[in-house]
Structures are given as structure tokens and as C-alpha cells.
């Protein structure tokens, strides 16, 4: 029983990673500007995430390798070896460093302003908290902390949505009857893009690999990711539903998550800024922890370092990503060039990573009877098509064509 209890945690890390400031913001924009009509995009993003993360679960639990290790092994002694490694490092490390500033800034968005000589103090405090959690010996402490942050987000966002008593029929229609309102295409891709996160695929396989060596079975891993991703999807859904109930149809167009606080005053009273601030803090901090961690796994695995060098590179990779985010956030800078570069590289990496996972998940020598079924492949190809659209969108945005 103890092992089964310990088996829950990797999936919570994935949920904590994708419910960040970007997801909270896109869900708020979807509900506030389009009501319940875009809920189906959240549902699809959950299905897409489950499709890819289940494949990485098999990679970690059955083959006991991380995704970065698999890329290194598959491209070894080929012309793709270093281009693949450099692409992963550029997209995951540099991209995560750029987004880390947004995660840390987002964690403090709902907190009172606190500056000292033009330096924002909150990023330093948030970064210190993330450093302590990441530096703490023992992976279960990290997983339990992220699990607690997911619970905090659930209490805030799910509790608020339930209190508002939205129309169940309207929610069901939005979930199961897809529609494409005018000017909603980019937002739909944004919802999917903030949920199907490339770095989560590296993070998940690596964490599952470690757990499998401690007794976690494939069945445990599948149950864990199913519960966690669906739970994360429910939280995202509740954010959109809350925004739809209190903001849709208002004279002012929804442009920010912070607009929710005053509109919830009749429900939560003067506590509305504090309640929403707690939820946004949990979302930002959870992503601020997982982004450096995923970068460290990706770097050390794709470079195929020996044990001693891997430990050193792992430690300094997450520290550098975290430090960059803290510095940029504390100076209230907007790392536009790096964010554009992150969009470009992640836009390329997402479909490539999805294609690689789909390919390796069909490898009988590696996965045996647990290789992809025809249904897995059909779902994977469908998700791959969408990720290609996401990648094209990111590249076009980064190059100014969109």
C-alpha cells in the first residue's frame, strides 16, 4: 500500500506545470470573451495531453529511459545527433528561461506591490521559495509540494465556479458541441498550446523512470497521469466557467485575469482579490518550479553525460533557468527577444517531439507488448496534426507574419 501511495506524484507535477499563468490567462480570456463556447478546446487539450503523456509514461515505466535519453540513443552516430541535442537545449533551456520570468511574475501578480529602489521584491521571495523546494533533498518533498499547490488551485478555482452555480446544460454544450466563433482561432490554439507543453514530455518520462525503479508499475503510472491531467483540466475548465459567468457580455472586453477580482466582489466580498491572488500565486509558483526542473532533465539526458557530470549539469541547469527568471522579473523587464525565440523554438520542438514520441512508442524492441496500438497511433496522429498547427502558429507569430 505504501508504494501505491508513493506512486502518486509524477502526474501532479505535470498538472502543476501546465496550470501556470498562461493557462489561467487564456482560460479567463476564453470564458470572458466567448462564454461557454470554447470549453471544447479545453476538453481537447486534456485528451491531447493524456495521449502524449501516456506514451511518455510507458517510456519511463517500461523502457526505464527518459525522453532526452531516447533522443540521444536514437540519433547517436547519425548526422542528427548534435542538431537534435542543440534544438532541445535551445527550445527547452532558453525557452524555459524566458518563460520562467513570466511564471515568477505571474506568481506575484495578485500580491500587493512591494519594491525597493525600483526592484520588485516579490520575485526574489518567490525565487527563493522555488530554490528551496528544488534544492531540498528528496523527490517526494518536491512532488508533495507541487501536489499541495494543485490542491490550492483546485480549492480556489473549482470552489469559486461551484459557488456561482453555472448552467450545467450550457457547460455540456460548450464541451461537446465544438464551435469556432469569429476571432477565436488564435485563442483556441493558445488554450491547447498552454496545456500540451513540450517540456512536460521530458519531465514526465524522467520522473516516471525514477519511480519505476522504486516499484511504480505501468498501471500506477497510467492511473496517476489520468487522474492528474483530468484534474488539471477541471481546474482550467472552472477558470473559464467562472470568467464566462461573471464577465461574458460585459461592456469592457476581457484582457486580463486580474479583471476577475472586482466582478467577484458580490460573491467573495472584500476577500476576492486575496482568494484569486492565492490561486494565481499557486499557478505561478508551481510552473516556476517545474520549468527549471524540466530544463535540467532535458539537458543532462540529451547530452548523454556520465553520472558525475550529469549531477553537476543537472544542478546548474535548473539554477541558471531559475536565476534568469528571478532577475528579469525583479527588474520588471520584458524579455521580448527571448520570448520570441522561445515561441519559435518551441513551435518547432512541439511537433518534432510529438512525432518522435509517436515513433518510439511503436518500437517493439523497446516497449514489447506495450507498444502503440492502432488506436494509440490514430490518436497520436490526430494530436500530431494539431501540434503542427500550433508549431506553425508559433513560428508565424515569432517572425511577425501573424
Automatic annotation (TrEMBL):
Residue ranges of the TM segments: 36-52, 80-99, 111-134, 146-164, 184-204, 225-251, 271-295, 316-333, 339-361, 381-401
Topology of the protein relative to the lipid bilayer: Multi-pass membrane protein
Database matches in Pfam families: Nramp
Keywords, in A-Z order: Membrane, Symport, Transmembrane, Transmembrane helix, Transport
Subcellular locations according to the entry: Membrane
Keyword Translocase among record annotations: no
Main location: membrane
Protein name: Divalent metal cation transporter
Organism: Candidatus Paraluminiphilus aquimaris
